[in-house]
Amino acid sequence: MDTDFYRIKRLPPYVIAEVNAMRAAARAEGRDIIDLGMGNPDQPPPQHVIDKLCEVAAKPDAHGYSQSKGIPGLRKAQANYYARRFGVDLDPEREVVVTLGSKEGLASLASAITAPGDTILAPNPSYPIHTFGFIIAGASIRSVPTTPDENYWRALDNAVAFTVPRPTVLVVNFPSNPTAETVDLAFYERLVDWARFHKIWVLSDLAYSELYYDGKPTPSILQVPGAKEVAIEFTSLSKTYGMAGWRIGFAVGNTTLIAALTRVKSYIDYGAFTPIQAAACAALNGPQDCVEQTRQMYHRRRDVMIDAFGRAGWDIPAPPASMFAWAPLPPALKEMGSMEFAKQLLTHAQVAVAPGVGYGEDGEGYVRIGLVENEQRLRQAARNVKRYLQSMGVNASAA
Ligand SMILES: Cc1ncc(COP(=O)(O)O)c(C=O)c1O
């Protein structure tokens, strides 16, 4: 029997799994690990959303197959969100599809629009589905930088000039996971011009649309006039409303891409459980003070973490958005590499972080720190890290 499966062969070992296994083993030994390694929100959704889920689940007719592309009310709720938040008009019938989380949406779209051998431009470092969705579909990835500076534009132009076959798709993700970098509308204006000129689809992952700090709301690519000719954008309720396990996200934008995604999904799934979709409507249509509270919670955690880790001897730039800090290894320990450093933090400081190399080779030299524990635990993590750094000869002034 052939066990050499084409798609499985294309998947390398999951680098972060090594640290995850160590964390699980440490916990099994009863050690109290402060887990800043995952991107899993630690707060529940607002009560009215949970109430709606329960209310609809109690109805006898709510348990059949739902609609793969999402119930009409939810697609309308998403269109209303884009209208009020970004001033973008969307047709809920042709320009919106509900996905089982944005991750599923990205993977399904990749399988819908990719032929084996296609070249896809994806950021490095990046959230894994940005590359592996396409690798599973048989494409090759050409990496472009994550940082949106002039080097980024040079890399895009070089990719078009020198890649055969010509790239068909560019993935962008701002606020970025893992680097937390953001862009302004001028970036998207230039990007839409570039993509229209080169006839390249743009897939924008806006999973952290509402986690921005310092009063700078993150823009949508669809705010650019003409963006719908080339772009589709993914958003998610996972982080905005603490609904990560519920698996609800959206794709909106270009009608051709939405149709392709909807078509593939119609063969694969029956849509999210109807009560979940009804509760997602309640989240989007209901009071939005919970979104502001969540933003403020991450904002406070960010400030506590940056301050406490700085005092511990580790200077980390404050992320302007997302729920992560992208932390350069302390210079004195840089040679160790991000994987070994993450292992050492776990073993000697009881703090789990994600090694940057797990997000692509250009993530080496960094670890990703999630703001997914409360302020007290973040301060405790900093105390543990301080002791570890001191044991390595790094003190607060020399880090
Ligand atoms: C950038 C980015 N996109 C997508 C996702 C997946 O989100 P969802 O829960 O909507 O599938 C994540 C989750 O961490 C993410 O960081």
Key terms:
Aspartate Aminotransferase, domain 2; 399 residues; Aspartate Aminotransferase, domain 1; EC 2.6.1.-; 2 domains; PyrdxlP-dep_Trfase_major; LL-DAP_aminotransferase; 12 strands; Aminotransferase; 7-stranded mixed sheet; alpha/beta; 13 helices; binds pyridoxal-5'-phosphate; pyridoxal phosphate binding
Counting structural domains, the number is 2
- CATH first level of the largest domain: Alpha Beta
Tell me the strand percentage band: 5-15%
Estimated helix fraction = 40-55%
The CATH superfamily of the largest domain appears as Type I PLP-dependent aspartate aminotransferase-like (Major domain)
Number of strands: 12
Helical/strand content category: alpha/beta
Describe this structure in words.
There is one protein chain. This protein has about 400 residues and is an alpha/beta fold. The protein is about 45% helix and about 15% strand. It has helices at about 5-10, 15-30, 45-55, 70-85, 100-115, 130-135, 150-160, 185-200, 255-270, 275-285, 290-310, 340-350, 375-390; strands at about 35, 95-100, 120-125, 140-145, 165-170, 200-205, 230-235, 250-255, 325-330, 350, 355, 365-370. Strand 5, helix 8 (about 185-200) and strand 6 (about 200-205) form a beta-alpha-beta unit. It is globular, with a radius of gyration of 21 Å. About 50% of the residues are buried. Bound molecules: pyridoxal-5'-phosphate.
